[in-house]
Design a protein that fits this description.
Layout lengths: L1 H7 L5 H10 L4 H14 L7 H13 L3 H13 L6 H13 L3 H9 L10 H13 L3 H13 L6 H13 L3 H13 L8 H12 L2 H13 L6 H13 L3 H13 L6 H13 L3 H13 L6 H13 L3 H14 L5 H13 L3 H13 L6 H13 L3 H16 L1
Protein name: Pentatricopeptide repeat-containing protein
GO molecular function: mRNA binding
Pfam families: PPR, PPR_1, PPR_2
Length: 396
């Protein structure tokens, strides 16, 4: 590698070194060799904190710990301080590998690199402790953090709640949140939202559903981020009806859906053939002041075609162009394919032409499907025009 680099006559800058190191984040040894080559062959180059930290992260990611600490010491001699985000990264990498003693050691010696023990650094050690399921130590760490004047943030609570939920310790997670509330360290989001997220992350879908069902019966609402995450997981499991009912319940209670809500629900209800519900949701999104975009229209169009309601699909597609966003390439491609499957080759040909007029290049298989279909149904002149269109596009 070094011989090749010597032949390149590179103009070395901090930006170049950083970009190379960032691009080689999975190659610890090679990144280190490149960094050494630059410093040896270009004495005028002086590494900045950004390059040092990028290399340290790469070495940590690739478990080159001995070399990583050598670079950290070099950085210290150059009077560059390790940032809290880099120290946090190292602690989390040790945690992922189960090296909890090393993670604690890094946490304790952060001050040696002029790096204060910020909430971010506490969170990284908390993450490492939860990775090895040392919850007693994690809980003690939060108490220490508060004693030292630190203030837990949303991530602090989420890490510990996720860890407890993943270990099936629902009661402990609930008691922890209640204790923090009593002490005046209220989570930035409501405790039950954190618990629902924790249950989802741990794969306990039924428990999460039960909790949100209980919340709505009591007249309480999850936050929108939690609600969207919940319905996304439930839709993946195939329980679309539950999501529809839950959507109507939370809307009655005053929850304001965002575009993420409709991105989950409209495709889900369309896929199971609930076209009326899909139309209602689309209209609700427009009434909420959200501008629809192609991927909200596309599932409805596809569902109509699958049900053989092509005229309705074509009309809705035209409505999309007038009132919504112009169709993009994936939507045109989907509609052309659905027309082909339904034997509507003339309409498919028209959409092919329309697509090219919008400077959207159709995929080759669409041309093949349309021309073959037109020939089979006796539309030879139109088939020839489509073939000529494909030739002209390829020539261009």
């Amino acid at each position: 590698m070094e011989k090749t680099l010597n032949k390149l006559r590179l103009t070395v800058t901090s930006d170049l070194v950083y970009r190379v190191l960032r691009s080689c984040s999975t190659s610890g040894t090679e990144s280190f060799r490149f960094f050494n080559w630059v410093r040896t062959h270009h004495p005028s180059y002086e590494p900045t904190t950004i390059e040092f930290e990028e290399l340290i992260k790469t070495l940590a990611r690739n478990r080159k710990y001995e070399t990583m600490w050598k670079i950290a010491e070099q950085m210290k001699k150059k009077t560059h301080n390790l940032s809290p985000s880099t120290v946090s990264f190292i602690i989390e990498e040790y945690g992922k590998q189960g090296h909890i003693d090393q993670a604690v050691e890094v946490f304790n010696k952060a001050k040696n690199f002029n790096c204060p023990q910020t909430t971010e650094i506490y969170n990284s050690l908390l993450y490492a402790l939860c990775e090895v399921r040392y919850f007693h130590g994690a809980y003690a760490l939060i108490r220490r953090m508060i004693r030292k004047g630190g203030i837990p943030d949303k991530k602090t609570y989420a890490i510990l709640v996720n860890g407890w939920c993943a270990a099936g310790k629902m009661r402990e997670a609930q008691e922890f949140l209640e204790e923090m509330s009593r002490k005046g360290f209220n989570p930035p989001v409501r405790g039950r939202d954190l618990l629902i997220n924790g249950l989802l992350n741990a794969g306990y879908l039924e428990s999460a559903k039960e909790m949100v069902r209980k919340m709505t019966k009591e007249g309480h609402l999850p936050d929108i981020e939690t609600f969207n995450g919940l319905i996304e997981e439930i839709c993946k499991s195939g329980e679309v009806e539950f999501c529809i009912d839950l959507y109507h319940d939370v809307c009655r209670l005053g929850l304001c859906p965002d575009i993420g809500t409709y991105k989950v629900l409209i495709p889900a209800v369309s896929k199971v053939g609930r076209i009326d519900e899909a139309f209602k949701l689309l209209h609700c999104s427009i009434e909420d002041g959200l501008k629809p975009f192609p991927s909200l229209y596309a599932p409805i169009i596809k569902a109509l075609c699958k049900m053989g309601q092509f005229d309705d699909a074509f009309s809705f597609f035209s409505d999309m162009k007038v009132k919504g966003h112009p169709p993009n390439r994936p939507v045109y491609t989907m509609l052309i394919k659905m027309c082909g499957r339904g034997g509507r080759f003339v309409e498919a040909a028209n959409y092919l032409v329309e697509m090219t007029e919008m400077n959207l290049a159709p995929v080759s298989r669409c041309f093949d499907m349309v021309t073959d279909g037109l020939k089979n149904c006796g539309k030879h002149d139109l088939a020839k025009r489509i073939e000529q269109l494909e030739v002209s596009l390829r020539g261009a």
